[in-house]
Amino acid sequence: MTRERAGGMRIMKRRRVPLRTCIGCQEQKAKRELIRIVRTPQGEIEIDPTGKKAGRGTYICKKRSCLEAAMKGKRIERSLNHPVSPAVYEDLAAQLPDDADEE
Ligand SMILES: [Zn+2]
């Protein structure tokens, strides 16, 4: 296990990190750094900590600023084409680490 964060070194050979775009800051990040939000086939919006739930997914950083941007712009709604209840935002806020507002 390496915890290095390939700063300028992207010569890692066989670790292809899947990238996803955060709906808050629009930056591409490694999937595992993001929270997945999924619209299930049943039409529910859920947070998907495993990243494996079926359905259409969208991603957001674990940052308050990104969550706020997503809320203000209704970006989860747009991305998933589905209304998002306040409970989902509350759950998202609960996922945020307290001390990781900025990296
Ligand atoms: Zn972000």
Structure, explained:
By secondary structure, this protein is α+β, with helices and mostly antiparallel strands. It has a single domain, classed as YlxR-like (Hypothetical Cytosolic Protein, Chain: A, 2-Layer Sandwich), CATH 3.30.1230.10. The protein has helices at about 65-70, 75-80, 85-95; strands at about 20, 30, 35-40, 45-50, 55-60. The strands form two sheets. It has a three-stranded antiparallel beta sheet. The longest helix has 10 residues, at about 85-95. The protein is globular, with a radius of gyration of 14 Å. The two termini are about 20 Å apart.
How does the major sheet shape up? 3 strands, antiparallel
Q: What is the architecture at the second tier of CATH?
A: 2-Layer Sandwich
Hetero ligands: zinc ion
Q: Class by helix and strand content?
A: alpha+beta
Task: Sum this structure up briefly.
The chain contains three helices and five strands. It has a three-stranded antiparallel beta sheet with strand order 4-3-5. A two-stranded antiparallel ribbon has the order 1-2.
